[in-house]
Amino acid sequence: MRIATFNINGIKARLPRLIEWLEETQPDVACLQEIKTSDETFPVKDMEAAGYGAIWHGQKGFNGVAILARGETPVEVRRGLDGEAEDEHSRYIEADVRGVRVASIYLPNGNPVPGPKFDYKLRWMQRLRARAAEIWAEEVPAVLAGDYNVIPYDRDVFSVAAMADDALMQPESRTAYRALTGDGWTDALASRHPAGGVWTYWDYQAAAWPRNAGFRIDHLLLSPVAADRLVEAQVDKETRGREKASDHAPVWIELVN
């Protein structure tokens, strides 16, 4: 079972690239972030034509997450996180697909630091951890996939100095991320590439892609049952180099059935 995460950076703008990637790689589940479209304008017909059922939590022009499943419609479990009723951002959706609990996550960026956006990021991470604990208690195979906007370790960035002041690398961000892995969730990509140097994001600016000046912020965290089934974790790096591509590359895992 192949489960992927892909920050598409605007599903309408990148629709040809998304369909192309789905047809070429045929993931069983694809978690999308930054779809940047309202619920009413999500291109569900295009997903169905590509062979995928879909659920989504949209927001016009910003944020937005979705889960696609090949040949079926994901069974929605939850949209949004508890703990902050006034939060109207569309950043979390969760579903069951073929016996696996899957969440698509778009964590707040948090810049500038310090400030209210960074405070919101940290509160959101606390809320995610609370939901992760509830899923953990169900003892189901689970995958928390998405753009976490956190660079976990120095080995996950092309230049520590270049990102030192960014919210993605602040000690508080890293501590919150490591709290999840400390709770027992397995960082799939890190487990297969412990030396680091594997990027999932390259900025559009400063020739980041041709210089390979990237970093790793797209993660799939696995519950113990899912981690026991993990056989591979990789990045579809080539996708980032295509015309009108997202600034993220898809990341995927393979689980044995």
UniProtKB/TrEMBL annotation:
<feature type="active site" description="Proton acceptor">
    <location>
        <position position="248"/>
    </location>
</feature>
<dbReference type="GO" id="GO:0004519">
    <property type="term" value="F:endonuclease activity"/>
</dbReference>
<feature type="binding site">
    <location>
        <position position="7"/>
    </location>
    <ligand>
        <name>Mg(2+)</name>
    </ligand>
</feature>
<feature type="site" description="Transition state stabilizer">
    <location>
        <position position="149"/>
    </location>
</feature>
<feature type="binding site">
    <location>
        <position position="149"/>
    </location>
    <ligand>
        <name>Mg(2+)</name>
    </ligand>
</feature>
<keyword id="KW-0464">Manganese</keyword>
<feature type="binding site">
    <location>
        <position position="247"/>
    </location>
    <ligand>
        <name>Mg(2+)</name>
    </ligand>
</feature>
<feature type="binding site">
    <location>
        <position position="34"/>
    </location>
    <ligand>
        <name>Mg(2+)</name>
    </ligand>
</feature>
<keyword id="KW-0479">Metal-binding</keyword>
<dbReference type="GO" id="GO:0008311">
    <property type="term" value="F:double-stranded DNA 3'-5' DNA exonuclease activity"/>
</dbReference>
<dbReference type="InterPro" id="IPR005135">
    <property type="entry name" value="Endo/exonuclease/phosphatase"/>
</dbReference>
<feature type="domain" description="Endonuclease/exonuclease/phosphatase">
    <location>
        <begin position="4"/>
        <end position="248"/>
    </location>
</feature>
<keyword id="KW-0378">Hydrolase</keyword>
<feature type="binding site">
    <location>
        <position position="147"/>
    </location>
    <ligand>
        <name>Mg(2+)</name>
    </ligand>
</feature>
<feature type="active site" description="Proton donor/acceptor">
    <location>
        <position position="147"/>
    </location>
</feature>
<dbReference type="InterPro" id="IPR020848">
    <property type="entry name" value="AP_endonuclease_F1_CS"/>
</dbReference>
<dbReference type="Pfam" id="PF03372">
    <property type="entry name" value="Exo_endo_phos"/>
</dbReference>
<feature type="site" description="Interaction with DNA substrate">
    <location>
        <position position="248"/>
    </location>
</feature>
<dbReference type="InterPro" id="IPR036691">
    <property type="entry name" value="Endo/exonu/phosph_ase_sf"/>
</dbReference>
<feature type="binding site">
    <location>
        <position position="248"/>
    </location>
    <ligand>
        <name>Mg(2+)</name>
    </ligand>
</feature>
<dbReference type="GO" id="GO:0006281">
    <property type="term" value="P:DNA repair"/>
</dbReference>
<dbReference type="InterPro" id="IPR004808">
    <property type="entry name" value="AP_endonuc_1"/>
</dbReference>
<dbReference type="GO" id="GO:0046872">
    <property type="term" value="F:metal ion binding"/>
</dbReference>
<feature type="active site">
    <location>
        <position position="106"/>
    </location>
</feature>
<protein>
    <submittedName>
        <fullName>Exodeoxyribonuclease III</fullName>
        <ecNumber>3.1.11.2</ecNumber>
    </submittedName>
</protein>
<comment type="similarity">
    <text>Belongs to the DNA repair enzymes AP/ExoA family.</text>
</comment>
<keyword id="KW-0460">Magnesium</keyword>
<dbReference type="InterPro" id="IPR037493">
    <property type="entry name" value="ExoIII-like"/>
</dbReference>
<dbReference type="GO" id="GO:0003677">
    <property type="term" value="F:DNA binding"/>
</dbReference>
<feature type="site" description="Important for catalytic activity">
    <location>
        <position position="218"/>
    </location>
</feature>
